[in-house]
Amino acid sequence: MIFSGLSEKLQKSLQKLKSKGKVTEKDITAVMREVKLALLEADVNFMVVKEFIKNVKERALGKDVLESLTPGQQVIKIVNDELTSLMGNAQSKITYASRPPTVIMLVGLQGAGKTTTAAKLAGVLKKDGKKPLLIACDIYRPAAIKQLHVVGEQVGVSVYSNEISKNPVDIAKEGVDYGIKNSNDLIIIDTAGRLHIDDELMDELVNIKRLVKPHEILLVIDSMTGQDAVNVAENFHGKLGIDGVILTKLDGDTRGGAALSVRAVTKKPIKFVGMGEKSTELEPFHPDRLASRILGMGDMLSLIEKAQENFDEKKAKELEEKMRNQQFDFEDFLDQLEQMKNIGSMEQILQMIPGVGKQFKNIKVNEKDLVYTEAVIKSMTKEERKKPEIINASRRKRIAKGSGTSVQRVNQIIKQFEQTKKMMKQFSGMSKSMKKGGNFKFPF
Predict the structure, then answer these.
(1) Domain architecture of the chain: domains with CATH
(2) Which of 35, 346, 405, 433 makes an SS bond possible with 365, Cβ 3.0 to 4.6 Å?
């Protein structure tokens, strides 16, 4: 899970404050020492950590906190606020040109994922009603141009390339002119990268910038490189002047050094984050939501947005009614599995639900298990799906044989269904409580 190591350590440290009825300066100092170590171990820039701890301590040692009836909760809120501030406070969107086309130039080192990110970004902005064009300016990496054509086709976006020319600067200008002629109101330039920053790379990028005058230069960084990502960002910004950052491979980053340092060091916002290999797995970056996830509070807004994009509204209303009346069955379970696959991995979904990610932190979800689950459910009769309680031993044997699995697997899936049903009941109760104006409490 994202930042799992950092998240677990921060939650464990802050739990010590939450359990206290009264918090002293000594308590806060001790906990802040643990938080500092957790951030440094997560490869967060030292100066960023130093400033963060200073800001939290100043606010936490205030009279309003120390004399509060819930001082632990107040300190947790301060940590959440400061984490959000560290990463930029609010979502930073693409700035479109007043007169189209808007030209976006993607830069970064080789291996950061620029080419796939270019297509993903085009796909995301296409949903905003834009007509994107991708320009292939990486003439050095073998098959880079072919790769851009392939990923462009996956998201339904045109690609301009010139495999004869050996000058990326000329290709960029030709591509922009082509986009203007074809009424593309958004142009994304995929530039070449290197294994390290050198003068030749920077000169090329500066020349492209000078000739096509992009409205935004976005730096693509591999988040798993940790603090090295900050050094890369400083170099690119110093020599080229970037307008924002796209962090790739955030779904595999257990530390968090890049996400928590880049904005603080460069003063430039993180605009998007890559959350997987699929063409749809590029998301707008919300600092407040990520801070909430790091502290185990979940991210229901992102989950709701993903659900709205992928769920059938009519089916969602029917499911809500069934949850309210305790009529959730295997038909619904199967339908939810199929729709949830469109949202993301089970681990990602669990981490977005307040409190649930912590309960399931040691469970590794094998996505292949979903295939077995579907096979088992589809081997049931309609009556068995509607009335799971009638599935006795002989029926379980038949279902196992029909699905090509084992009785043990069938038993396991039925147990998972019962647990899901119980969870649905809890969420239904939570929803009613919130509608009545119930107070939300931190889940740790």
Answers:
(1) 4-86 (1.20.120.140), 102-290 (3.40.50.300), 300-435 (1.10.260.30)
(2) 346
